[in-house]
Amino acid sequence: MSDERRNALKTTLQLISQLLWVLGLVVGLNGVYLLMKYRHSSLFFSHIYITLPAAFALASAVFLLASGCLGSWLSIRDSTFLQGLFVYLLVVGFCLESTASALAYFHSIKLESEIAPLSGLFQNYTGNSYDPYSHAVDATQEELQCCGVHDYRDWLETSWFHRTGGLWVPHSCCNSTFPSCNGTVDQPWQLNQQGCQVKFEMGFQFVLSIIIWSSPLVILVEVVLILTVAQLMRDPTVMEYPVLVKN
User: Fold this and answer.
1) What mean pLDDT comes out for the span 67-94?
2) What pLDDT, on a 0 to 100 scale, did the predictor assign at position 246?
3) Which residues are CB-contacts of 199 (< 8 A; sequence separation ≥ 6)?
4) What is d(CA 109, CA 117) in angstroms, rounded to the nearest whole number?
5) Sign (positive/negative) of CA torsion 6, 8, 13, 14?
6) Does residue 243 carry a pLDDT above 70?
7) Each residue of 79-95: b (16+ CB within 10 Å) or e?
8) N or C: which end of the chain has fewer CB atoms below 10 A?
9) Which spans in the chain are helix H?
């Protein structure tokens, strides 16, 4: 292999390895963000399996970051052992990223059934700020600017609504654009019109979709890196050694 071709391959290896490092950082941040969203909303899920895509994404990110750093190092140094280790890390990262993407897709289509306890939390609402379930409902309605599971009328069927006289919904249902809102159902235009389930699902679907669609890009970059390293391993640098002459 000519020096020009080898230098071109090493430059390609360095640039794409840096791209892989950036992708690893993005995948890792997505995994962390999904874990943080679950931790904040764990009461709304029937089990913890939704965190599996995040776990595999974080594991994949570790291998992608390591591969990116090692690939950059290989662009300035020839080592058959490190080249083999680099390919091994890429293969493991490929498997982990593919698994994370598959799990994210599975949970994205099952998300509605996984947040089934949401309606139960609204039914068991007490209005007590010390009750973790009631606090979670109020915090969710304020953060997502929503009201009820599907809309504010869901509150009309709750025991809390009837115990309080059947006139008000929780103040957390109030639209922030109406400072005078007190939660009365006689003025429904002052309440948030969209239900919490739709907005809740949209937030998780967004994170899961990033994990799903980042996988093809990561795989493409890894394939290019493997082909580049294969070219370098096929034509190793010929080392010239001095001949020692015995007197």
Assistant:
1) 87
2) 55
3) 144, 145, 146
4) 17
5) positive
6) no
7) eeeebeebbebbebbbe
8) C
9) 3-41, 52-74, 80-109, 111-114, 117-123, 132-144, 159-163, 196-234
Query: Token digits for 244?
Result: 């020692």
Report the C-alpha gap between 188 and 192 in whole angstroms. 8
Residue 21: exposure state from Cβ atoms within 10 A (0-12, 13-18, ≥19) = middle
pLDDT digits (tens, 9 = 90+) for 180-189: 888 888 888 8
Are 2 and 64 in contact by the 8 Å Cβ rule? The answer is no
Structure tokens at 141: 């309605």
Query: By the 8 A CB rule, do 71 and 225 touch?
Result: yes
Both tokens of 67, joined, read 């591969």
DSSP, residue by residue, 135-175: HHHHHHHHHHT--SSSSGGGGGGSHHHHHTTSSB--GGGB-
Q: What is the pLDDT of residues 122-131, one digit of tens each?
A: 888 888 878 8
Beta bridge partners of 184: 168
Work out the angle between the directed axes of helices 196-234 and 52-74 (0-180°, nearest 10).
Answer: 30
What is the pLDDT at residue 220?
93
Place of tokens 């399996």: 49
Identify residue 22 by its one-letter amino acid code: V
Q: Is 117 exposed, middle or buried (0-12, 13-18, 19+ CB in 10 A)?
A: middle
